[in-house]
Amino acid sequence: MIKGPSRLNLILQAREERAERQALLLEQFGLPIISATIVSPGPHKNSELISNLFAECNNWIYKFFGDRDMEIVQCDVTYSDAGPDSQFLIQGGSLAQIKRITVAIEDSHALGRLWDIDVIGPGMTVVSRAQFDLPPRKCLLCAENAHECSRGRVHSFHALNERMHAIYADFKSCGRQ
After folding, report:
1. CA dihedral over 14, 18, 23, 25, signed as positive or negative
2. Which CATH number applies to 7-133: 2.40.160, 2.40.50, 3.30.70, 2.60.480?
3. Contact (Cβ atoms closer than 8 angstroms) between residue 18 and residue 80
4. d(CA 7, CA 172)
5. pLDDT at residue 1 above 80?
6. Which reaction does it catalyse (predicted)?
7. How many CB atoms lie within 10 A of CB 174?
């Protein structure tokens, strides 16, 4: 029996293709990129919840950058086995200014913990929170470093997914739109 690629291989391939698109955009435009994805533990990267979170994330990025001297020149949206992603090309701000805004978006919105908003500069340099002496993001379920919990698979995908649904349900029940 011939088997197709595993789910993990499809996700990894889609992530590689995203990095290739990002590198091409940087080469073509020479502008910083905001890469927006959804925190989606486990093998299933596309669902109604993820689509709703993604739409809300994109709306907030447009809102925050529409109110500043920076401009979104272009936004490329892709749906893949790695989940949806947006690549926003930003004109008029430094990498540090853009990162400060994306951190504010992640930290101030009720759904921000479910968003992964990266800032990418020349040479595919990702601007990190650590560069601003900011603590790493916390796990959805405990107070530990999210990256460490993820790498150690401390929590089940089911528990993480339930928490994501609870955060979104709370957001909707409070009438936040």
Report:
1. positive
2. 3.30.70
3. yes
4. 31
5. no
6. apo-[citrate lyase ACP] + 2'-(5''-triphospho-alpha-D-ribosyl)-3'-dephospho-CoA = holo-[citrate lyase ACP] + diphosphate
7. 9
Output Rg (C-alpha) for the chain, integer angstroms: 16
Closest CA to 167 of 9, 49, 33, 7: 49
pLDDT at residue number 4: 63
Q: Which residue has the tokens 């910083």?
A: 32
Three-state SS at 25:
helix
Q: Where are the domains of the chain?
A: 7-133
Query: What are the pLDDT digits (tens) for 104-137?
Result: 999 999 999 999 999 999 899 999 989 988 888 9
157-173 helix and 48-66 helix, angle to the nearest 10 degrees: 60
Q: What letter represents residue 54's amino acid?
A: F
pTM, rounded to two decimals: 0.90
Sheet with 83-91: list strands edge to edge: 71-80, 83-91, 33-38, 115-121, 125-127
**123 alpha carbon, distance to own chain's centre:** 20
Nearest to 62 by CA among 34, 83, 84, 38: 34
Cα 132 to the chain's mean position, in Å? 19
